[in-house]
Amino acid sequence: MSTTATPVALSSLPEAETTPWIPGPLYRISVEQYEAMTASGAIPESHRVHLINGLLVQKMTQKPPHVVADELCGSELLRVIPSGWHLRTSKPVRLPAQFSEPEPDRTIARGTIRDYEGRHPGPGDIALVVEISDSSLAEDRKLATEVYGPAGIPVYWLVNLVDRQVEVYSEPGPGGYRSSAVYAAGHTIPVVIDGREAGQIAVEDILPRHGK
Questions:
Q1: Residue 19: per-residue pLDDT
Q2: Where in the chain is the domain with CATH 3.90.1570.10?
Q3: pLDDT in tens, 16-73
């Protein structure tokens, strides 16, 4: 006698059983492979991903406080950026040594917009990267130790909406950053570009008023 199994919808299984099994080891793709796949359309622009440590990582959907902090930060940075630099918004930063091409919320890059018609800026072109962080706070802190610091990005700002503070990482090295400072309400953050202070920004001026 034979029996017929009744199909079970995945949505009715316990959460642990619906998580797909990912066998190892994973294959890390290079920045060059990622760029080729993007250029060919193998990775459509509609897929909100970027390359982190050789893996495609889905970018988080931005909630209103994230958007507000991003826009405020951009406005304040534009106010102090000196001649010879420009501000980029959610654009790729090329870090081949780390198998990464992240798209930070804000980047201060050397030169003009047209200087990057044929390539994305790399560590030698960048003074500062900024990530606005709420639900991805732990991952964004790992970017300091695993990606931006080892790549030689001079300064990394983490605008922490959870604790309403700005974490500033500097002095990059193989293990991440050797120096860090936390700026809370009432503090002003020095904007250091190419080793020189270009101005200061008040913490309250880049945080949304009503928390995360």
A1: 63
A2: 60-205
A3: 455 677 787 889 999 999 999 999 999 888 888 999 999 899 888 888 999 999 999 9
Rounded distance between C-alpha atoms, residue 62 and residue 112, angstroms: 27
Cα distance between residue 24 and residue 32, in whole Å: 23
How far are the Cα atoms of 96, 127, 135, 145, 206 from residue 34, in angstroms, in the given order? 10, 24, 26, 22, 33
Q: Tell me if residue 146 falls in helix, strand or coil.
A: helix
Q: Which CATH number fits domain 60-205: 3.40.190.10, 3.30.470.20, 3.90.190.20, 3.90.1570.10?
A: 3.90.1570.10
pLDDT at 18: 58
Integer Rg of the chain from CA? 20
Q: How far is CA 78 from CA 5, 107, 152, in A?
A: 63, 11, 23
Amino acid at 40: S
